[in-house]
Each structure stands twice: as C-alpha cells, then as structure tokens.
Amino acid sequence: MSKWVKVCEEKSLENGELFDFDYEDKKILIAKANNKVYASDRICTHAYADLATGFLDEKEKVVTCPLHMSRFRLEDGSPENLPAEEPLKTYNVESRDGLIYIMLE
Ligand code: FES
User: Fold this and answer.
1) pLDDT for 53-95, tens place per residue?
2) Ligand 1 site: residues with CB under 6 angstroms?
3) How far is CA 66 from CA 3, 44, 50, in A?
C-alpha cells in the first residue's frame, strides 16, 4: 500500500545538493535542483554505490554515480550513459505546509 512519508522541512534542503533519507529498508536519494525536490532510489543500478555521495548537475537535473560515472535523470531515473542500464526508481514528491513528503509503497 502506498503512503506519504514525511522527509524533512523544505527549508533545510539547499539547492544543488544531494541528501540521503532512510525509511525502513529503503535508501532514498533526495535532490534539490532549481528549487524543485526529486526523490529516487539511492543505490546505483549498476553496482553498489551510494548516489548521495555522487555529483549533482543542477542545470541538467542529473546525478552522476561516484563509482563509474553513469548519469541518471532526476525526473525519471533513466540512465544517460553506460555502464548503468537500468533506471532508478523514482518517487512522487509533495510539499505541504513547509514539509517535504514522498510517496512510498
Ligand atoms: S556503480 Fe554506479 S555506474 Fe557503476
């Protein structure tokens, strides 16, 4: 069953930065680019790398894996280049009363 899960206060998220968020067994990547907040799985689909330690291109809305440099689009999780071939799962994000929520299953 899907539910909205509170992540943090929106004002605590800086533009152009990556954040980690753990909920139960899920490792979530939170990214803020151009004042929009994105959420996806945090572990690279190629091998085990934590994308919160990667690099955010705020203009392109892309996160780059720190291990083998695959780039993933924040909007849909799709990889732009090898070696990653599988997309990251992405999550709906909502801002309510100054708080960020994501929809988890
Ligand atoms: S672990 Fe991310 S591209 Fe290889």
Assistant:
1) 999 999 999 999 999 999 999 999 999 999 999 999 999 999 9
2) 44, 46-47, 49, 65, 67-68, 70, 83-84
3) 31, 9, 8
Residues in the chain: 105
d(CA 94, CA 46): 28
SS3 category, 44: coil
Nearest residue by C-alpha to atom 3 in ligand 1: 68
Tell me the pTM: 0.96
Q: What residue has token string 């533009």? A: 15
Check: CB of residue 100 under 8 Å from CB of residue 9. yes
Contact at 8 Å (CB) between 65 and 56? no
